[in-house]
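dumping the sequnces here before i forget
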Amino acid sequence: MLRFLVFRILGAIPLLFLLSVVTFAIIQAPPGDYADYIRSMLINQGGVRPDLAEIQAQAYREANGLNDPLVMQYFRWITGIVTRFDFGHSLYYNKPVGNVIAERLPPTIALALVCHLLASFLGIGLGIIAATRQYSWADTLLGIISFLGMTIPRFLLAIVILYVLVFRMGVNEIGNFNSAYWGGQPWGWGRFVDLVSHVWPVIFIATFGGLAYNMRVMRANLLDVLNSQYVETARAKGLPEGAVIMKHAVPNALHPLVAYQGVVLPYMLTGEIEVAIVFGLATVGPAIVGSMAVGDVFVTASFMLVLAATLIIGNIIADILLVALDPRIRLGGNKE
Amino acid sequence: MLALPAQELSGELPDPPEFAAQSEPIFVSISDILEYRALPEYHEPDWVTSKYVDAGTLPPVAERLPKEPMVYKVGNMPDGVGVYGDTMRHVIGGRPEGWNYIGGQSQGWGGIDIGLSECLTRTGPLFMVKAEELEPMPNLAKSWEWSEDGKELTMHLIEGAKWSDGDPFDSEDVMFYWNDNVMDANVSPLNGATPESFGVGTTLEAIDAYTIKWTFQEAFPTQYLYTMAYGTFCPGPSHLLKPQHPNYSDNTYEQYKNAFPPEYMNMPVMGAWVPVEYRPDDIIVMRRNPYYWKVDENGNQLPYLNEMHYRLSTWADRDVQAVAGSGDFSNLEQAESYVESLRRSAEDSAPARLQFGARTIGYALQPNMSGNGWGEPDARAQAVRELNRDLDFRKAISIGLDRQRLGDALVRGPFTAIYPGGLYAGTSFYDKESTVYYPYDLEAANALLDGLGLMDTDGNGVRNFPEGTAGGADVEITLLANSDYGTDTNLAEGVIAMMEPLGLRVIANFQQGNARDDMAASGQFDWSVVRQGAEMVSIVQNTAALAPTGPRIHTFHRAGSDGTLDLLPFEQELVDLVNSFVTTSDNEERAEIMKDYQRIFTENIYSIGLTQYPGALIINKRFANIPAGAPIFQFNWAEDNIIRERVFVPEDQQGGYELHPETLPGEPGGAGAV
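..and the predicted 3d for all of it:
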């Protein structure tokens, strides 16, 4: 098992390296850099003459090494990460990229986890209801809900909800984790309630998508299990229907969903990210999109690398879970 | 095919449609807005007196004000003398780099630096100044006079004004800004002030603590008075900055620039509010400056508003929050959302109102006029540029565009107006009589293109270059546009569709902001759909950019690799007019020059105008003293135009938005408000 784990982790290193090269090349490919952003802001916001703005942009490029060849910029960045765990300097935030990530990753993961847990519990619960009432009106209704959840793009749903909240309902608690007042207060019940009143649309939308998937899988599996012989046997023994379902059928129908947990990390992150972009919450999503738009390359590249790492970690966890569940995989590993 | 004479193509320019939601400024003289004089008594919020002055931690208000403070006249205040209290809540998409504005740090834009930094002169409220009396408003420089030969300008600074920490403001601050920041090539103040901004060879010296003297190489270069406003002559607190500057310390220039990061609180300012709280990615809070040097006619020290908020969100969120009522202020610029925003704001329960100004947002199709290799064009692109340089070709494009339909496609209703190019109707120097307009005429457009020898030789519906030009290939033209904004791409798509009946294949090159700017600045475009810059709105600012007056100044005609411009005769005329405009101080003469400029510009269709429409100021209904017709951008942004220091909220409408009620900024570098 340990050998398997070590090999998986060692195998991830060249993959990460390759990913870092590719992401860096891709984000540097389009024309324009952060100095162009500076020039645009000077012209558009400060009313500066184009030639004077260009001089300032050029000075910025010179001072920050943006004129250096791409390869040199890449190696400077990657060397910093490997040797000092330094992800570079964010040009836009004017602080280390590590700090930008450290500020935004925890709320991102927290939000994603909440959405994931809600999507799991609600999805499984509704899946059970749908399966046990197959072809009833409840099953049809839940079918429609899951269909909508799986087909409506999350960003679209976010825009629709934003529109309804702002233009139709006059709700204005959006766009930040806390209102200006509560954001400066110590954590407590009041701030928590304020937090919930701000983040519920994000949680709702991100949960909705995941919930639909879980519901469909749970319903299908449970229907399979409910038709199997041991369930019939349990019924024949005279167990009440509730006990049959909850004790015998449900645990066995859960297997695919449990195995799925390993790779769900990136999925739930992207869900949260998409929605947070629309609502402008200070999480990873808006930072990635924002940094791409202004040419803050080290932030974009570092976030991509971090997300790639979560994908790889998720896969490793999935593999470990599978190894734990299925001895045949472990045996296969030992043969090598 | 004979060329069509211009008079057969030109026609009557329709007037912009009437528009009820638009408000017109009340035009006044600068002396109607403000003056500098001592008043018999001064007042301030009661809590400042009781908590600070009575406790001995702050001198009485009369001692904190200059000998002769700036006095705003009641006659020009739309709702009269205000009351103290409340907060203006802004939402912005920028992030602060730090507070060292003159060292080159951005404060996050969105009106923050406009509120923190006061400059020698001021331009924002000029939208309400009569055109014939147009000149920058006094500010830190309360008056000035020219020498007889017009080469020396003596300026008198306001006497006895203080920074927000109580340190006196004087010529030392001005000279530190000039000598150690503008003249020091290692420092780039935020908005790019360089020695050239004030004319090559210009010098500045301090005569005494409150008098400075400029010496110019030219006579009466009055345009530099505009340059002395935001954002190129707004001095910083030398008592704090000087010890950090490399000329006076062991610091590097990088350390100097970053000496006052966003976490540094209570940075001394001359502006009305001082930063007292910063939460990354959340908010910047500013409290009233107890040493602010402006008052109303009753002697009430300004500002009326105690607090300013800047939520650190996204630029798109700014409009949403302003309409929703959780933000107080935004500039609505995307015509596509006007109808819905107006509908919402017309409801009784709507928290914000929309105020439309003049139609000063204008889009043009700019053809790349450089035939000199700027941007290294290939054979096809070079052939397009040769066409761009041909008046008949520009005419064909112009009359091939149905501008009415273009505008209506953005937004139905009276918002958009036909824009023939050149100066905007509604700006100070616009003259309809001097504007040449070529109306929509598809047949004539096709005839013009035939006359240029552009025939569809291969029968595929697209005209071909003549034999020997670009291999006789189809005429394919790339159109650069900014994909960050729907308006830009919508107009570009309209242009592309309208070129099809002319047999011109226009290919969309839609790029995100940075990539677009990079391609435009390096000349890699055939055509570009552009929302035009500040110089087209104010004329008196960045005037040099109105024509290719230098190798890298103009947006669509720049020098090639040999550093020279290949100006067409009419372009040379425009350059000469612009050059004479900047050295003329007589306003009547300037108006005449601009009439010529407009005639030559529009006659030659220098850029192909598309549409012009007004921006809307979204402002929460509780605010009073918002001047009528305040544009979102003319000489400066709306944040400056509305004169925020005299904006107030009537007592019965004040909300509990203050985060640090009854506090003032503490020591520089301290923990925040105390």
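The two ends of chain B are 81 Å apart (CA to CA).
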